[in-house]
């Protein structure tokens, strides 16, 4: 019979065929994502190199901190891998389409398990490996480690990834035998995102920056005790950290290396046995989830029904909102975004600019522009993830729109207004509250609030327009966001935000500078200030209208 | 041959299949008919090994599916109603992969793959990606895969969907030739003319239970009018009388 690796062939062949037949946007996408990846990896390398170098100055305390840092690094990745293992195993073992083919063939259950586990492991851990590699290289380089350190790193990363992914896969096997697979996925997505959001908020609210203040020094011992408390010798993260630390000092730690490998192999054996016993029952159950419970959202009909909209637009809006709200995978991502926004605003709230009184006014106003830029980037991110895929989201059901007596213009404008309202409310709130916390000049408050309105119209229009020009009816929302059109939108959006910041920043700074000096603007300067503001407004409106027109034309051309 | 005994499948409290027994002998084309939601696809998916029965026994070519699933599947071909094909593989790559899953290897595989592609008239698309295929071409490719390993029994769910008249004729000819060579074919279809033309025996299922079984002539014998076709018998058995109220609704 065929070895388990044979079952991985279609994925390898598909990847090869995909690489051989390049599609439009592949190069720009690879350049953008590859570029971001290289920059992040370089930053991680430099960061860990610098930090390890700094710690070396503190002799034994430095060693202690490095050891603690490695344990924390591995513990963070351990929890990420376990959660990623749970989510990935749901797809690879239970929801993957090709299982409908493979399970009808005489492939031994054990071989199918091994093939699926290798796939789960690679999908769940590639990102961790990519981020871990530059960090460990930075540490090794700073400590002038020999080849043995890098070899040890490779030797421990494999079992270190296997253990949490196997545990995650086991949890999935258990969950699917209790809940229907699709329901389990929703529950997991929500739990994971709530966990991540809480973690982000918690880490920020303990205000680690206080440790940088001299007056906080007596608390350092308590701080280290807090850091030490979650690290237990029973976890693989501790074994990995200890093995690497020993290797860094030129020695070896066979006990912890052996603990890693034996636990990894044992977890595969145990999981394999559990798979043999419960997999088919779980898979069969996962095929039965046709009648899942759902929220009826009857109140939504009443609320939208009260809006002054035509019947067509009302029904389109109700349909879009219900589909969005019933898809946990979609709206739950907003929770994480909300957590990041809270942390962002909290940063402004606790910003202690009064420590530099002679600079505070100037810095506050600079921060107002940082705030505007950040709001712009939040706007672009939300737009590419939730607004750009709006047309593609019609998917295979787009024929309903095409064959109904609705103009494509009405359809696209309906999508625009549905996208504009939440984006505008979110970013306007972010800007107004941020500026309020900072206490910036009233002129800047008004200017920022107005700028956000114009930018929202432009970016939501651009997202809807490009989404209509480059639809992907066969892909899910996250794939659509990463498609050629999505990347093109992000590039244009970033360019637009930069131009807007320049157009608004220069006249605003000129105005504020003159105000501080109590010198009125000259006629030429006043004209230039007005010209910049008018240009910014005109640019926004032009992008908005042109994008929507192009989008409507593209939809009309689609019919031929 | 395919034999199922007292097959039951419950979805929570709902009995999708409720005590179904069937026997498809070697060389027989057995039609499995029923209205939408009657339990046809659930039954076929249990025979193919995609769903676990709540109770009952399935035997494929002498192998109990619950005890020796691999031995049962090695001589079974399955053509689902919604087939999965790797979109980024070529037709040739997909069939060669499929051959490997059934333990076929060596030089003969390439010849067998081309033979099947030619039989189903998609030979010139051997090196084209599946994603560029029409629905009918994909259907032909799935049939090629199902017959590639020379199965002794075949389970087919709605074989004619998406096929042009030439394709439909081709499938009928292939099924007939296979049954002449002793292959047992269990076929679910809504095209009653096809069932009447091709099947040696027919079983009708309604709400998870078998309500009629026999040869085509035995079933036609249940008709009130001598000129009635299988459609009239089917509607009579499955409660299609409601169709008469159409005029009032339309």
Describe the structure.
The complex is a heterodimer of chains A (560) and B (250). By secondary structure, chain A is mainly alpha-helical. Chain A has helices spanning 9-20, 26-56, 59-95, 99-102, 109-142, 147-178, 181-205, 220-228, 236-248, 254-286, 298-305, 311-326, 328-350, 357-387, 398-403, 408-438, 442-469, 477-481, 484-517, 523-558. Chain A folds into 2 domains: 4-16 and 37-206 and 224-286, no CATH class; 299-558, no CATH class. Chain B has 250 residues and is α/β, with parallel strands linked by helices. In chain B, helix 3 crosses helix 4 and helix 4 crosses helix 5 (135-148). The mean pLDDT of chain B is 89. Chain A binds chain B through residues 1-2, 6, 9-10, 13-15, 17-18, 21, 97-98, 100-109, 280-281, 284, 287-288, 290-291, and chain B through 11-12, 45, 48-52, 69-71, 73-74, 76, 78, 80, 82-90, 93-94, 97-98, 100-103, 129.
Structural descriptors:
heterodimer, A: about 550 residues, mainly alpha, 2 domains, globular, B: about 250 residues, alpha/beta, Rossmann fold, 6-stranded mixed sheet, 4-stranded antiparallel sheet, 10 strands, about 35% helix
């Amino acid at each position: 019979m065929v070895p388990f690796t044979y079952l991985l062939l279609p994925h390898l062949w598909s990847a090869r065929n995909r690489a051989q037949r390049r599609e439009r946007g592949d190069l720009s996408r690879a350049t953008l994502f590859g570029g971001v990846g290289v920059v992040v990896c370089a930053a991680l390398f430099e960061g860990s190199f610098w930090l390890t170098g700094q710690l070396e100055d503190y002799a034994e305390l430095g060693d202690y901190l490095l050891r603690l840092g490695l344990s924390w690094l591995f513990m963070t990745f351990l929890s990420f891998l376990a959660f990623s293992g749970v989510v990935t195993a749901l797809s690879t073992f239970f929801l993957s389409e090709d299982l409908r083919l493979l399970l009808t063939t005489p492939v031994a259950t054990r071989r199918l398990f091994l093939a699926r586990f290798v796939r789960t492991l690679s999908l769940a851990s590639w990102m961790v490996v990519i981020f871990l590699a530059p960090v460990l290289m930075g540490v090794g380089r700073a400590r002038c480690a020999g080849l043995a350190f890098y070899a040890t790193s490779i030797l421990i990363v494999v079992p270190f990834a296997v253990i949490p992914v196997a545990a995650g896969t086991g949890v999935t096997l258990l969950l699917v035998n209790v809940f229907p697979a699709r329901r389990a996925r929703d529950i997991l997505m929500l739990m994971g995102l709530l966990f991540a959001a809480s973690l982000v908020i918690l880490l920020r609210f303990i205000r680690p920056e206080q440790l940088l203040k001299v007056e906080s020094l007596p608390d350092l011992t308590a701080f280290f005790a807090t850091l030490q408390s979650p690290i237990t010798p029973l976890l693989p993260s501790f074994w990995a950290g200890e093995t690497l630390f020993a290797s860094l000092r030129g020695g070896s730690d066979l006990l912890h290396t052996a603990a890693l490998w034996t636990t990894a192999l044992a977890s595969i054996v145990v999981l394999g046995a559990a798979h043999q016993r419960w997999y088919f029952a779980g898979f069969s159950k996962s095929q039965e989830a046709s009648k899942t419970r759902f929220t009826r959202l009857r109140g939504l009909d009443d609320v939208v029904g009260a809006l002054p909209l035509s019947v067509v637009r009302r029904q389109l809006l109700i349909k879009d909102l219900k589909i969005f709200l019933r898809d946990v995978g979609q709206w739950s991502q907003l929770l994480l975004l909300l957590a990041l926004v809270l942390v962002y605003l909290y940063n402004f709230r606790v910003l202690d600019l009064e420590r530099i009184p002679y600079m505070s006014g100037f810095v506050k106003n600079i921060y107002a522009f940082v705030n505007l830029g950040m709001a712009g980037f939040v706007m672009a991110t939300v737009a590419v993830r939730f607004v750009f895929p709006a047309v593609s989201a019609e998917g295979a059901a787009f024929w309903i729109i095409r064959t109904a007596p609705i103009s494509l213009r009405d359809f696209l404008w309906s999508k625009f207004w549905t996208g504009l309202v939440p984006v505008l409310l979110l970013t306007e709130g972010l800007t107004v509250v941020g500026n309020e916390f900072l206490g910036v000049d009233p002129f800047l408050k008004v200017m920022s609030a107005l700028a956000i309105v114009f930018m929202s119209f432009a970016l939501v229009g651009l997202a809807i327009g490009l989404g209509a020009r480059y639809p992907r009816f066969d892909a899910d929302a996250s794939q659509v966001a990463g498609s050629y059109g999505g990347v093109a939108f992000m590039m244009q959006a970033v360019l637009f935000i930069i131009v807007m910041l320049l157009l608004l920043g220069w006249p605003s700074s000129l105005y504020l500078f003159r105000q501080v000096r109590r010198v009125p603007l000259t006629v030429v300067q006043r004209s230039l200030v007005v010209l910049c503001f008018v240009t910014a407004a005109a640019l926004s409106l032009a992008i908005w209208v042109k994008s929507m027109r192009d989008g409507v034309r593209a939809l009309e051309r689609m019919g031929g | 041959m395919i034999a199922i005994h007292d097959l039951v499948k419950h979805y929570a409290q709902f009995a999708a299949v409720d005590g179904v027994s069937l026997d498809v002998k070697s060389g027989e084309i057995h039609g499995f008919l029923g209205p939408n939601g009657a339990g046809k696809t659930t039954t076929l998916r249990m025979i193919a090994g995609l769903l676990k029965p709540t109770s009952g026994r399935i035997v494929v070519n002498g192998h109990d599916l619950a005890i020796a699933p691999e031995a049962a599947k090695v001589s079974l071909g399955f053509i689902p109603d919604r087939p999965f094909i790797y979109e980024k593989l070529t037709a040739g790559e997909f069939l060669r992969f499929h051959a490997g899953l059934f333990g076929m290897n060596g030089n003969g595989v390439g010849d067998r793959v081309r033979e099947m592609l030619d039989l189903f008239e998609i030979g010139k698309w051997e090196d084209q990606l599946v994603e560029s295929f029409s629905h009918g071409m994909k259907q032909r490719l799935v049939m090629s895969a199902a017959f590639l390993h020379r199965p002794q029994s075949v389970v087919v769910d709605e074989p004619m969907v998406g096929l042009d008249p030439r394709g439909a004729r081709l499938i009928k000819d292939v099924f007939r030739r296979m049954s002449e060579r002793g292959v047992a074919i269990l076929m679910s279809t809504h095209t009653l003319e096809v069932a009447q033309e091709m099947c040696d025996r027919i079983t009708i299922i309604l709400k998870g239970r078998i309500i009629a079984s026999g040869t085509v002539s035995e079933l036609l014998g249940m008709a009130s009018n001598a000129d009635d076709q299988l459609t009239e018998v089917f509607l009579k058995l499955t409660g299609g009388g409601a169709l008469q109220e159409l005029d009032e609704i339309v």
